[in-house]
Design a protein that fits this description.
Length: 490
């Protein structure tokens, strides 16, 4: 995934005033800056046009060092260092995004602040202006607790429970909820709770069976889900916090009585008016949360969001983001989520990001847009398309036999110094390529091109940005790829 904010690199350590890491590039006063940008020959024309326009808009000065190599992705700090021609007026050096390794060779030849920029030069504006979450003061704070439920824990081995527990905790869960089976008392509930507690984690128990609950609380569970008229009297003896729910959600029957019982017994509690699935009163239940917040303005509220994320034919990220937004507006302090169905398998991580996004948006009165790119997974936030004239110009500058793959204008494109083909179908494109009887088409290279074309087709299908030798951007689910071309870097 492309990092929009540049990485700060410490200045030459031999000068006292350059010992400190330079400030984030987005914090610099741009009219005072002269950026010296480094690139390869193929990107030079596009970079110059882009930066000229950007410099005029933002008020900085610049120079561009075009090094004698075609592809900027192949540049390494060690190779760059002896070839730099930095003008005396430069105030900072900006390297291509692939130069994210040891920069000691660069430090040896310049005392300027050195920054590693984005891998796509069209993201330089976002880098300089700080239009991403990492540069926003206070971003990352949150006010919503995540309770992650392990469903049907009695049917699982303790080893599996602990594996799930560790994953939930790593993904952002604050409390691990042990979900029991209704109508059956689990004899090993205490053992399970103690094992999770031994990992240093907080535990809740999801059970209506009083004895089962008592054993879990005795083993260290700090929260009970849930309490209504069936078990509220027993709750007075547990000595822990509980979640109060109505006996019947639509009418809230028994809700006030349960709350009154807990108040009289000084039992700490949070309340849950119950979120219903779509088609079973979802809209009414959202209104109910709103009304309950008005009736109980200072009481802690929990929302069980699995009734939507698990029971709706849609990827869970958007569902979770919307529900966390409702929670942020209504000051709902905790959510109960789970990851049973495959499309909700990353719900805990989604909720962790969503609670930060919504806290930032609601507390600052700003729209939750262009703030958290990791929640945009299926399609990219923005495409940086190339025109046909740009592709033609790029082909005219190629001299070597190496193939470049593009996904632009609804088609796949492949080109080298001799040929340029474009097709809708990757098989037809490859057939045209093979018809030229290429001398560099080994089995390994054919596999590589097939792999890149498969990524390119996926990008075209979903509306994603394709960059050769880079992973498609799947937001928080992105798995970085090691560049194939990097193996041949100078």
């Amino acid at each position: 995934m492309v990092a929009i904010e540049a990485k700060s690199i410490s200045r030459n350590s031999r000068a006292d005033d350059l010992m400190k890491t330079p400030p984030p590039i987005s914090k610099l006063r741009l009219p005072d800056q002269h950026f010296h940008l480094v690139t390869g020959k193929l990107a030079a024309r596009g970079l110059h046009d882009y930066v000229a326009k950007l410099a005029k808009e933002l008020g900085f000065r610049y120079s561009i060092d075009v090094l004698p190599i075609s592809v900027a992705a192949l540049l390494t700090p060690k190779w760059i260092a002896p070839r730099l021609a930095i003008p005396p007026e430069a105030t900072a050096l900006l390297l291509p995004g692939h130069c994210d390794t040891d920069l000691s060779a660069i430090h040896e030849v310049t005392k300027l602040p050195v920054y590693v920029g984005p891998r796509d030069f069209q993201l330089i504006e976002a880098m300089l202006t700080g239009k991403d979450a990492s540069s926003r003061d206070g971003y990352g704070d949150y006010s919503i607790e995540i309770i992650a439920e392990i469903n049907h824990a009695p049917r699982m081995s303790l080893e599996s429970i602990l594996e799930t527990t560790k994953r939930y905790a790593a993904d952002g869960a604050d409390v691990i909820d042990i979900g029991c089976d209704p109508g059956e008392r689990w004899s090993k509930v205490g053992e399970c709770v103690r094992a999770v507690r031994d990992l240093g984690l907080r535990v809740s128990i999801d059970s209506f069976e009083p004895q089962e609950t008592a054993e879990a609380v005795g083993a260290g569970a700090e929260l009970v889900l849930s309490v209504n008229s069936s078990n509220r009297d027993a709750a007075c003896d547990w000595g822990c916090e509980v979640v109060a729910i109505p006996d019947e959600s639509k009418s809230l029957a028994g809700f006030d009585e349960t709350i009154e019982t807990l108040d009289k017994a000084n039992v700490p509690y949070r309340i849950d008016p119950i979120l219903e699935p779509i088609g079973f009163g979802f809209t009414e239940s959202v209104v109910r949360f709103h009304d309950v917040r008005k009736r109980y303005p200072d009481t802690a509220i929990m929302m069980g969001i699995g009734n939507l994320s698990e029971l709706t034919d849609a990827d869970s990220a958007g569902v979770n983001v919307l529900l966390l937004g409702i929670c942020a507006e209504l000051r709902i302090g905790s959510v109960l989520t789970t990851e049973v169905i495959n499309w909700a398998r990353s719900s805990v991580r989604e909720c962790d990001l969503a609670r930060r996004l919504m806290h930032y948006a609601v507390s600052r009165g700003t729209i939750p847009k262009h703030i958290e790119p990791n929640l945009v997974m299926l399609r990219d936030p923005k495409l940086l398309p190339k025109t046909q004239s740009e592709l033609d110009a790029l082909h005219s500058e190629l001299k070597d036999p190496n193939y470049r793959v593009f996904a632009e204008l609804g088609k796949l494109h492949i080109m080298n110094g001799e040929h340029y083909f474009q097709e809708d179908d990757p098989f037809e494109l490859f057939d045209r390529l093979l018809a030229t009887e290429p001398q560099n088409m080994s089995a390994g290279h054919a596999f590589y091109l097939g792999y890149e074309m498969a990524k390119a087709v996926t990008a075209l299908t979903l509306g994603k940005q394709y960059r050769q030798d880079e992973a498609l951007d799947w937001g928080m689910l992105t798995v970085d790829e090691k560049s194939h071309r990097a193996k041949r870097a100078p």
